[in-house]
Write a structure and sequence with these properties.
The complex is a heteropentamer of chains A (335), B (331), C (508), D (297) and E (315).
Chain B: E1 4-19, E2 24-40, E3 44-49, H1 55-62, E4 70-75, E5 78-79, H2 85-92, E6 95-98, H3 112-122, H4 128-141, H5 158-170, E7 176-180, H6 188-205, E8 208-212, H7 216-222, E9 225-230, E10 233-239, H8 240-245, H9 250-258, H10 298-302, E11 308-309, E12 315-316, H11 320-323
Parallel strand pairs in B: 3-8, 3-9, 6-7, 7-8
Antiparallel strand pairs in B: 1-2, 1-4, 4-5, 9-10, 10-12, 11-12
Helix pairs in contact in B: 3-4, 3-5, 4-5
Chain D: H1 6-13, H2 20-30, H3 32-49, H4 51-54, H5 86-122, H6 124-139, H7 142-153, H8 157-184, H9 187-194, H10 199-235, H11 247-258, H12 264-291
Helix pairs in contact in D: 2-3, 3-5, 3-12, 5-6, 5-8, 5-10, 5-12, 6-8, 7-8, 8-10, 9-10, 10-11, 10-12, 11-12
Chain E: H1 2-29, H2 34-42, H3 47-57, H4 63-76, H5 89-93, H6 97-124, H7 129-143, H8 146-161, H9 174-208, H10 211-219, H11 223-260, H12 266-275, H13 279-307
Helix pairs in contact in E: 1-13, 6-7, 6-9, 6-11, 7-9, 8-9, 8-11, 9-11, 10-11, 11-12, 11-13, 12-13
Classes of the chains: A alpha/beta (335), B alpha/beta (331), C alpha+beta (508), D mainly alpha (297), E mainly alpha (315).
The structure holds adenosine-5'-triphosphate (2 copies) and magnesium ion (2 copies).
Chain lengths: 335, 331, 508, 297, 315
């Protein structure tokens, strides 16, 4: 167990729901986790399982209506963000906690200069002159390795290439040296060479600033290469949490197991052409009409009667490896 | 190799950049610059490359959805490069495309059933009950429930939308399906479902695929041969095994090395190339990759390497080691 | 207290006149603002409400005399009168003016609507600078009345008609300053006016406000000293009185008749029965009660007494078909006539009622259509734009039309010749009855007023019985002014003659 | 953390109103103003259709004896200076005013859609010519155009409709063209091409339906404004001629003379016009919100 | 950029040329000419006089000749004489232009300065009572016939102050000048303020859902900064477009306002001139208006570039 002071973020029983016309939508259901200083926590899970909403909940940016955080606590460096008033929350956003959004391409204001957007973030939280803030902005751009940062600071987003825009986003997110950085699929839709550049950059900066990092991604390869700990979400719930080594070595939840199995083999290892991939049969249930028991049960090969009736508790299966499955112990053997 | 279904020779697509009173052309986007390849019946050719290197343009040119600037496209031996829209219409039955962005390529105001049934109706192949039955069968084929025919695109998940696109492409039972990044936005489990479906269909019907993707692992799974593009040109093309085992072009090597491996004990991420992709409006002189290449030599800045045979059906465009592209040592 | 000198009279104007030349116009939109610029040879006394031969007084003429068996009218002219540009006024100016009006001069008016007034004038002769004679073909006593109208100013010889349209020069009490189309007309006191001590006003300013509500509101708000004369409808007079109780409003006949022009050259109104039926169907009281809250006059061609000098007495009027008090009986008769002509409850006659697209024309037309319904006539309103109205009437491209006829002078010569004589340009219906025409001349030469009256009544009755141009009613309109405006006289049998404004003063 | 009333929130989101009437009712409750607009529009349309049954008097019959009667049991909205029943005239006026509103919007809209679609879809010389023509129409002031047209053709119902519809064409066409240009580049249009659909069919089946949302909003906004334009034309003496009772003319003519002495002549047509414009616009706003996919719960 | 300007200028000329043809022939389609109307005012028609007068004014010539004569003169700066007032057309037109220009400018200012902030508020508070209230307020602007609104203002001012703001050609004080123009401008501006507000609202609603707004919030920016600094700047383009179109249509709206408030501007003058078939006035005036409108459009396009750096005029 780590020292308490080491913990940057402590999320307890977070619950975010959407009130939609098709019903109550439990996008995040009772999710807890912690992030330590300098640590990278990865969140993986099926598309639509609530990863982005979890991230937005931390910043209290869930669109309301229809969304609402209905329970739990988000403690950042000792303060519960959910009880703060809006002004105090504003002082924390962008300052202690920053986010790189899922779609960096559309997340920059198209009619503001890159530099000004960073300057704005800086001046909102630090009492600096325009000149000083501008210097910091240029410095940040240099830090994310944008060539000719001074000139680029005066340009508009559309004048930058996609890769540069993402770096600008990162520069902006890190400008106030936040205690916590949330990166929501920062590299989807990029080819692997650029992806490698960007990830390396984030990790470097994280190391330098000691920032806690929450990394949301589909790419299990990226998870394996960057994270220390992983949580796996399914249908709004955390179904498994473990250190990255433990998870990849022996996943304890059948869904995680299925995910792992679906990963196409690394090209160099010489798979035969036309090899079928393993897939998880069935589809994700609608978050509105979740089954009473385990949400994954209808697709699970190991499902037993109990799975349909009772939701399994998140239990520790040794060494901080949490999993919510009645048959977690058997997962490794059966598959 | 089987008889060639599709032959693309020297395909070039330049988008003009216009300006001025008379909208004179002041520049050119060299989106595709002399691309040649062939695709046999029942074969899958993987096409990989950076974002913006011209993959989609190749795909759309093949179907004559964009008019190529020059070059030739032959379908089953017939030159379709210059056919008129009307003459082309019968050929549309034998080639179909699955677009890069599944959501955008579905008309938000049509039901899934209508979307899938439309090609059949347009070509007058069936109507009424017969049409409905055919669409229902297609839905089942791609793993959708026929009762979902009445739903609108926004009611489907990403993976399901992708399958609607595939069902639409299959509706005409084409010989050739161009798949433009059909899985890039999906998570691995859904991605696996789609890939498996494509493989199954190919086995059953002998379809040919031109398969475009970022993810090399996916390409490795589905393709027989793989072509690597960089800035409008094919820089390397080879049988899949050969390519992955023995990448010759420095860009291919960088790509392969950058793939994150889903194993926390494996080598950590370390970018092999730096810098941004150059603009296709002003492509660098000589070898377009020289601005980012670790092995760039003086020659590379002026001389443009041609795609040459490097043995074992392996073609590569690199000046390194007399055009074999093989570096002396991989660091 | 006596009249005070000074002050500018502020008045609004209902529309922008085509130009400033009184002789080329036929609307009091021109007379009202420009009459103060001019003088006539003779004029209807400006402070007598009813125009008559007796109220004619000299103006540029000092005196007049009928000589040569009443075939020559000689004027002695006033001396020392100056045009506004400083040139002296002489008999040559008078000759020039009337030669032009008769179309005999070198210079021509662009338009000359009252040429027919001088049909009986042979020529004009001068005798020295200050005597001028009108030589007539036959005696025409009422020529003097025509010369006394506001429509008959004397123009200077040395100014071209074109200039008179844009910058009129006169001898009158006020000098022209400027005329901005759609904006304003400004006149200023003529310090050299021949009449000692006149005018009282320093000037007159007309602001052109075509929108009646705005204009009335502005008057109520005290922006104007006076409304445009005879432009305030009866409901609006009430409105003004309710908002500005101090304002003085006078309602008077305008000598403008609302009538129906009938195209008797083509079916269906070539049928005299149908014309008569139409005349019988009219409920004149209803028109007056709706449009004037009862304050209008029923009469023939001539304005009825007491305000009119020549109108038929009531008893005589009621003998004319359609004028009888029993509307129901009239209409029963009308229906019989219609049935005779082949129409009935099952077979209605469809008729187009053409009129101009102006409320004073349109509103009576609406009532007319409604009344015609009672005799199996389905009227449809056909509103015609100003530009097309006269060409359309001239083409005889109408069945019946609703028309307004203004009479500048309350004199039979003016009304009869202008509107009913064969070949007159303003005889829109081309009504032509040689017998009646002879009677026109007889009454015109008659010097005995009583005899002439009898003749005129006979003619008028005939005209109405022929349904040539059935008169529906004679309208009345109001004029309002602020209490401090003194010396205003609203004439009761003409709305064209009372605007010299030299006696008007402001008690402020 | 404030307690949350789940049921209330869900009700607000319309959770139990998924289909049919319940959904309509829910939308009506959520878009109160829009529903009100729809009700107003419906009432007016029904009024126009059944005017003959609703009106209590013939709207054209003159009645000298009862001119300028105050509103009473006999004449609900009083009578005008001709003694015509104002209520009946307003009821029949709905026909005229809605004919102008709907007629000119439909005419201008239809031509605008065809031109805009063709122009956006065909591009090339047609587009170039269209753009110039619409520039020209736009630079000619709308009312001036209407003025000249009614002067040229004479003031009649069809002519007023035409005069108001013509300036509408470039506005609609521009919106549709801009949308079409954007839609033309949409992958689903390319998808339609790839299955061998003809251009015309693509334009009608794929492009047109996707321009419907802005079109409906534009059309409802225009519908109101054409009623006002007719009123302005009437004010300038160029609207629908007597004796047909258009609201615009009823208002513009009485406004001058009877504001004070017979205010009912001004108030009721004024209310009718305002309500109609109000209704169409409210409904248009709500439609915009409902059709906006991101606005859906 | 320069090439773009040249191209725009060329297209503007094409448009103006088109307008000159349209207005010229449109006027000739309208039945009746000045001569008919003069005779109508004189109450009779004399065919011989009519022919003379037509000849004098040159309207008996073939249309093409008349057109060339006019447009040739127009290009040389010779605008001919008004048929009605017989004064140089320019002398009639020129003094009225500043009046209408001031009125239109003030109206636009009014429209923008009321419409935009209210639109922003309404969008930000979407679905609240405030939003409803503002929308009802703005709709009332759209649903009042403008002549009616004008008359209401006049009547109310007479009833309450015993005064009315009627046009004063020579305002003595600055305040008087303002009153002369401000009230009528407000009457027109109210309507377009309502329109501006609705467009702003709808445009803001689009923008407020964009990712970069979320980014701004994530930075910790205040609501005001987010709404006005980030959102409005992105939402302003359609608003500018509408204000631009309004500017063109304003001439139409001003006809009624100038009539009600009796302002001697070009709009009412134009209507009168059409009524009189005073071709030299109508033709030249429409051309002047068209030039203004075409330049207004051009300005709007230029403003696009100011507000949106993505728009660069290289085409
Ligand atoms: N504004 C919203 N209104 C209604 N539902 C929403 C909204 N935003 C998200 N959701 C729902 O919440 C669920 C969780 O969404 P979220 O964006 O967190 O998914 P995710 O795990 O990030 O998926 P992906 O990998 O595709 O980004 C989804 O099912 C989504 O439909
Ligand atoms: N219609 C067009 N006009 C001008 N340039 C275009 C057009 N379409 C594509 N391009 C340019 O051509 C180049 C190749 O585009 P293409 O879409 O083929 O890339 P891609 O390889 O499919 O990229 P991605 O992986 O992002 O899909 C790009 O630089 C693009 O900007
Ligand atoms: Mg997400
Ligand atoms: Mg692509």
């Amino acid at each position: 167990m780590t020292e308490k002071s080491d913990i940057v973020l402590d999320v307890k029983n977070l619950k975010t729901v959407f009130f939609t016309n098709s019903g109550l939508f439990k996008a995040v259901d009772d999710v807890s986790f912690t992030v330590k200083r300098g640590e990278t926590l990865a969140i993986v899970g099926e598309s639509g399982c609530g990863k982005s909403v979890t991230a937005l909940s931390l910043l209290r940016l869930v669109p309301d209506p229809p969304g609402r955080i209905v329970g739990g606590s988000v403690t950042l460096e000792g303060t519960d963000l959910l009880t703060l008033d809006e002004a105090a929350m504003r002082a924390i956003r962008g300052n202690r906690i920053s986010m790189i959004f899922q779609e960096p391409m559309t997340s920059l204001n198209p009619v503001m200069r890159i530099g000004d957007q960073i300057v704005e973030a800086v001046r909102l939280h630090r009492n600096l002159s325009a000149k000083e803030a501008h210097d910091i902005a240029v410095e940040m751009l240099r830090l994310v390795r944008i060539p000719e940062p001074a000139r680029r600071a005066g340009e508009y987003p559309h004048q930058l290439s996609g890769g540069m825009r993402q770096r600008a986003m990162i520069a902006m997110a890190l400008a106030c040296r936040p205690a916590l950085l949330i990166a929501d699929e920062p590299t989807t839709a990029l080819d692997v060479t650029i992806q490698a550049q960007i990830l390396a950059l984030i990790l470097d900066l994280q190391k330098e600033l000691g920032t806690g990092l929450v990394l949301i991604t589909h790419d299990l390869g990226v998870v394996a290469q960057t994270a220390q700990r992983v949580i796996v979400m399914y249908a709004g719930k955390k179904v498994e949490e473990a250190s990255v080594e433990a998870l990849f070595a022996a996943p304890k939840h059948p869904y995680t197991r299925g995910l792992m199995a679906s990963i196409p083999a690394v090209p160099a290892s010489g798979v035969p052409a036309q090899a079928r991939l393993n897939e998880i049969p069935g589809t994700v249930p609608s978050l509105v009409r979740l089954p009473t028991g385990c949400a994954f049960a209808p697709r699970c090969k190991l499902a037993i009667k109990r799975c349909q009736e009772e939701y399994p508790p998140l239990a520790d299966w040794g060494g901080g490896h949490l999993a919510a499955c009645w048959r977690a112990a058997e997962v490794a053997e059966v598959a | 190799m089987t008889e060639a279904l599709l032959e693309v020779t020297d395909l070039t697509k330049h988008y003009p950049v216009r300006a001025g009173v008379l909208r004179r052309q002041v520049g050119t986007v060299h989106a595709v610059d002399g691309v040649s390849f062939a695709l046999g019946t029942g074969e899958t050719l993987g096409l990989v490359g950076e974002s913006g290197c011209g993959k989609s343009t190749v795909a759309r040119s093949v179907l004559r959805l964009v008019e190529p600037t020059s070059g030739q496209i032959r379908l089953r031996g017939e030159d379709i490069t210059h056919l008129s829209k009307a003459e082309l219409r019968p050929h549309r039955r034998s080639m179909q495309i699955v677009f890069q962005d599944p959501f955008a390529s579905l008309n938000p105001r049509m039901t899934a059933g209508d979307i899938v049934g439309e090609p059949i109706a347009v070509h007058g192949l069936a109507s009424g009950k017969a049409l409905e039955a055919r669409v229902a069968k297609l839905f089942e084929q791609v793993g959708l429930r026929p009762d979902q025919m009445r739903n609108f695109p926004h009611q489907f998940s990403g993976g399901q939308r992708q399958r609607i696109c595939i069902a639409r492409a299959l509706a005409l039972e084409p010989r050739l399906i161009v798949c433009d990044e059909p899985v890039s936005a999906l998570d691995v489990s859904i991605q696996a479902q789609v890939i498996n479906l494509l493989i199954d269909l190919q086995r059953q019907h002998g379809f040919s695929y031109l398969f475009i993707a970022h993810d090399l692992a996916v390409v490795a799974h589905i393709s027989h041969r793989v072509a690597v593009m960089y800035l409008g040109r094919i820089v390397e093309i080879a049988d899949k095994d050969e390519l992955f085992r023995n990448p010759r072009h420095p860009y291919t090597q960088a790509l392969l090395a950058s793939v994150p491996i889903a194993n926390p004990h494996a080598k950590k991420i370390a970018p092999l190339v730096d810098g941004d992709v150059p603009s296709p409006v002003n492509p660098p002189s000589g070898c377009a990759f020289h601005t980012r290449c670790r092995f760039a030599m003086e020659r590379c800045k002026t001389e443009r390497p041609a795609l040459v045979d490097a043995g074992a059906g392996h073609q590569v465009a690199c000046l390194l080691n007399e055009g074999t592209g093989r570096p002396n040592a991989i660091p | 207290a006596g009249p005070k000198q000074g002050g500018i009279l502020r008045m609004y104007h209902r529309d922008s006149p085509a130009n400033a030349s009184i002789h080329e116009g036929a609307t009091y939109s021109v007379n009202i603002p420009f009459m103060p610029v001019f003088n006539n040879l003779v004029i209807f006394k400006q402070d007598v409400a009813q125009n008559s031969m007796d109220s004619i007084v000299p103006e540029l003429a000092e005196s007049w005399a009928w000589v040569n068996d009443n075939k020559t009218l000689t004027f002695k002219l006033r001396q020392g009168v100056k045009w506004h540009d400083g040139k002296p006024f002489t008999s040559a100016d008078v000759k020039c003016t009337f030669d032009m009006l008769m179309g005999k001069a070198q210079q021509k008016f662009r338009q000359n609507p009252r040429k027919a007034w001088y049909n009986e004038v042979n020529d004009i002769t001068t005798n020295g600078d200050f005597e001028v004679s009108f030589n007539l073909k036959r005696p025409q006593p009422s020529l003097l009345a025509l010369l006394a109208s506001g429509y008959t100013p004397v123009y200077p010889c040395h100014v071209s008609p074109a200039e008179m349209r844009t910058h009129p020069i006169g001898t009158g009490p006020f000098k022209f300053v400027e005329f901005k189309a759609n904006e304003s007309i400004k006149l200023t006191r003529n310090p050299d006016y021949w009449r000692e001590g006149r005018p009282y006003l320093d000037g007159i300013e007309f602001t052109i406000i075509p929108n009646r509500s705005t204009a009335i509101l502005a008057f109520v708000a005290g922006k104007f000293d006076m409304t445009f004369p005879t432009e305030v409808t009866i409901p609006l007079v009430k409105d003004v009185k309710s908002q500005a109780p101090n304002a003085i409003c006078e309602i008077a006949p305008t000598n403008v008749s609302t009538n129906i022009i009938v195209n008797s050259t083509a079916a269906p109104f070539d049928n005299a029965d149908i014309r008569r039926a139409m005349a019988l169907a009219l409920d004149r009281k209803a028109f007056i009660s709706i449009l004037f809250e009862g304050q209008g006059d029923i009469g023939g061609t001539m304005l009825p007494p007491p305000n009119g000098l020549w109108g038929m007495p009531k008893e005589m009027l009621e003998t004319i078909p359609g004028y009888g008090p029993d509307v129901k009986a009239n209409r029963d008769e009308a229906r019989k006539l219609m049935q005779k002509a082949g129409y009935g409850p099952d077979k209605h006659l469809a008729v187009k009622v053409s009129t101009r697209n102006i409320p004073v024309y349109r509103d009576p037309a609406v009532i007319l259509i409604d009344q015609l319904k009672s005799i199996y006539i389905d009227g449809e309103l056909d509103v015609v734009e100003t530009a097309n109205w006269f060409p359309k009437i001239a083409r005889k491209d109408y069945m019946i039309g609703l028309n307004l006829t203004g009479n500048a002078v309350d004199d039979p010569d003016q009304s009869f010749y202008e509107n009913y004589s064969c070949g007159s340009e303003r005889n829109y219906t081309n009504y032509c009855n040689k017998e009646i025409e002879k009677l026109f001349d007889v009454q015109s030469q008659e010097t005995n007023i009583d005899k002439r009256k009898k003749l005129v009544w006979e003619i008028d009755k005939k005209l109405q019985e022929d349904v040539a141009r059935p008169i529906i009613f004679h309208s009345r309109m109001g004029t309002c002014w602020q209490p401090y405006v003194k010396g205003v006289t609203i004439m009761t049998n003409s709305s064209y003659n009372g605007y010299r404004y030299e006696d008007l003063w402001l008690d402020k | 953390m404030a307690t949350i009333d789940y049921d209330l929130e869900l009700k607000r989101a319309g959770a139990n109103a998924t289909g049919g009437w319940r959904r309509v009712l829910f939308l009506a409750r959520r878009h109160v103003l829009g529903a009100a607009g729809l009700v107003i529009m419906t009432v007016f349309v029904l009024t126009a259709i059944f005017a003959d049954f609703i009106a209590r008097y013939d709207p054209l019959t003159v009645d000298a004896a009862h001119a300028l009667a105050r509103p009473s049991a006999a004449h609900w909205m009083g009578t005008d200076s001709f003694g015509r029943d104002v209520f009946s005239r307003i009821i029949h006026g709905a026909r005229i005013s809605l004919a102008v509103g709907i007629g000119s919007t439909a005419l201008g809209g239809t031509i605008g859609v065809i031109v805009g679609l063709t122009s956006g879809y065909l591009a090339g010389w047609f587009d170039l010519v269209f753009q110039r023509v619409s520039d020209i129409l736009q630079a000619l002031p709308l009312l001036v155009l209407a003025l000249v047209m009614t002067a040229a053709l004479g003031p009649s119902l069809p002519n007023v409709i035409l005069a108001i519809a013509i300036p509408l064409i470039p506005t609609v066409a521009r919106v549709i063209r801009a949308n079409t240009l954007a839609l033309r580049e949409q992958p689903f249009v390319e998808a339609a091409k790839s299955i061998g659909m003809s251009e015309v069919r693509i334009a009608i089946r794929h492009v047109l339906p996707n321009t419907l949302a802005p079109l409906i909003v534009l059309a409802t906004a225009q519908l109101g404004s054409t009623i006002l334009t007719e009123a302005s034309l009437s004010f300038l003496g160029l609207g629908i001629p007597e004796p047909y009772p258009s609201w615009g003319r009823m208002l513009s003519e009485s406004a001058a003379e009877y504001v004070r002495t017979a205010p009912w002549l001004v108030i009721f047509p004024g209310i009718a016009i305002s309500l109609a414009v109000f209704g169409t616009n409210l409904f248009g706003d709500a439609l915009r919100d409902i059709l906006d996919p991101r606005q859906r719960g | 950029m320069f090439a773009y300007l040249v191209r725009r200028l060329f297209l503007m000329l094409v448009t103006l040329f088109g307008i000159s043809i349209v207005i010229f022939f449109l006027l000739r389609i309208v039945p009746g000419n000045i001569v008919d109307i003069l005779f109508a005012a004189a109450g009779y028609v004399d065919p011989a006089d009519k022919v003379n007068l037509e000849k004098e004014l040159g309207i008996d010539q073939p249309l093409v000749v008349q057109y060339l004569h006019w447009i040739g003169g127009f290009l040389r700066g010779d605008f001919g004489y008004s048929y009605v007032s017989e004064k140089p057309a320019l002398q009639e037109i020129l003094p009225r232009i500043p009046i209408t220009a001031r009125l239109a400018g003030l109206a636009l200012l009014f429209s923008a300065s009321i419409g935009i902030p209210l639109g922003v508020i309404s969008a930000v508070k979407q679905g609240t009572k405030l939003d409803y209230a503002l929308r009802v307020f703005s709709l009332s602007g759209l649903s009042l016939p403008s002549f009616w609104l004008g008359l209401l203002i006049l009547t109310a001012s007479v009833a309450m102050f015993g005064q009315m703001p009627i046009f004063n050609p020579n305002p003595q004080t600055w305040l008087e000048a303002f009153a002369t123009y401000a009230v009528p401008a407000a009457a027109v501006g109210f309507r377009s303020a309502a329109l501006t507000m609705r467009i702003t609202r709808s445009s803001m609603l689009e923008v407020l859902r964009q990712d970069y707004i979320r980014t701004a919030r994530a930075k910790g920016a205040s609501d005001a900064a987010v709404n006005y600094h980030h959102a409005l700047k992105n939402a302003i383009l359609p608003v500018i477009t509408v204000i631009g179109i309004e500017a063109a249509f304003l001439i139409g709206g001003l006809i009624v306002t100038e009539t009600v408030f009796n302002i001697p501007g070009v709009a009412r003058f134009l209507v009168e001139a059409i009524r009189w078939r005073d071709y030299p006035i109508v033709q030249n005036l429409v051309m002047f208006i068209a030039i203004v409108v075409v330049f207004a459009n051009f300005t709007v396009d230029m403003l696009y570039a100011v507000f949106d750096p993505r728009i660069r005029f290289t085409d």
